[in-house]
From TrEMBL:
Gene Ontology CC terms: cytoplasm
Cofactor dependence: [4Fe-4S] cluster
Protein name: Oxygen-independent coproporphyrinogen-III oxidase 1
Example GO biological process: porphyrin-containing compound biosynthetic process
Keyword field: Iron, Iron-sulfur, Metal-binding, Oxidoreductase, S-adenosyl-L-methionine
Family annotation (InterPro entries): Aldolase_TIM (IPR013785), Coproporphyrinogen-III_oxidase (IPR034505), Elp3/MiaA/NifB-like_rSAM (IPR006638), HemN_C (IPR010723), rSAM (IPR007197), rSAM_sf (IPR058240)
Origin species: Gimesia chilikensis
Amino acid sequence: MSHLQTLLAETPYLAYSYAYPHKSAYRPFARPLPLRQIWEPEDRTDLSLYLHLPFCEYRCGFCNLFTLSNPEDDLAAQYLQQLRIEARQVRDQLPDFHFSQLAIGGGTPTYLEPDELAQLFDILQRELNTSPAQFPCSLEASPATLTAEKVALIHDQGIDRLSLGIQSFDEQEALSIGRPQKRREIVEALELVRNVGIPTLNLDLIYGADGQTVDSFRDSLQQALAFQPEELYLYPLYVRPLTGLGRKPQQWDDHRLTLYRAGRDFLFERGYTQHSLRMFRRTDAIQPHDTQYCCQTDGMIGLGCGARSYTSRIHYSSEYAVGRSGVAAIIAHYLEQEPESFASAHYGVELDREEQQRRFLIMSLLQTTGLSRDFYSRTFGGDVLNHFPDLRELEEYGLARITADTIILTPAGLERSDTIGPWLYSEQVLQRMETFQCH
């Protein structure tokens, strides 16, 4: 039995391959790597900029992101001061960057008070000569943290995409996954966003909660569609170590595949197209910007504790943790750093040629547009099937269609994205992830 056969016999939900390698494969560098040295050989004309705000009003039971719930009163203010210093240092090291898109995430950026949000945008303008109105800009939010003042500020800054974490319109379902929220808060937040006219509204929903049924999932989707979101992300529930749900001894009934299929078909019937296992976009929705950014080949500069940066060869960030004490310690260390420390990368991973190829393959294949064999060949100087001959197994099992031009997952393959992604991880990366000590 091949390795793929073995994996296909297990749950379809092995790991969410949103980035490769995962941060759990990062380690301290033997010596600090100067940013100028890292970025000197890179094309800096189409970079993505990411700002991380690691604060939330509470930590959801399923969350393994780098965030601290209910921080001390002045911690956010201290954080913004240090973020400004970091941004200034990065600008001085890389004065000739050009951004093609901006994302502000966390955590929950809208946890910040209005004056703090204004400071965040001031950092972009003063330190990076950048404004959200210049290119596609997405900001993450939660219903409980949105107010009319914050939404107006976000709109006035030119942010054209707001991503709202809903998870479920059913209060009991949300509570079962460690997210105490009221439906009234959700509706009020959505009305605020729609009334102000932000061009793209994305809603995140989760399937697989204890007690959730096909009917209740469809009901949440129906309530979401009442606000005509341009995008929806449907996330399978993962119960991970050190999260609230991961600490409970409860056994979970894994009916996620059934729920996924029901949700997918529901959205298809209502005019949405699928772009990945998780992402659905309304067919008639107009993209507010045309961007040439390509995550397979273009780099990203991440600012803030918990942000990831990557070039073609070096991925780096602050250290990673999930538990409160570990996250708090990493944030405290970030706040203590001297300005010159931000001129170098201290923690991350170096990708050799094969790892670069794997990343390109994974980031391409798990999209509905699939992998362009010509694009891969022009990037790496060889055919992807020669470099990764095991890909032909995907066609044997009906998981992909391979032509002279592309490799595209079938519907059966797409719903196995969280199996196919980990199947393509290298042994070296898997070993580093397995031996990572998460706190």
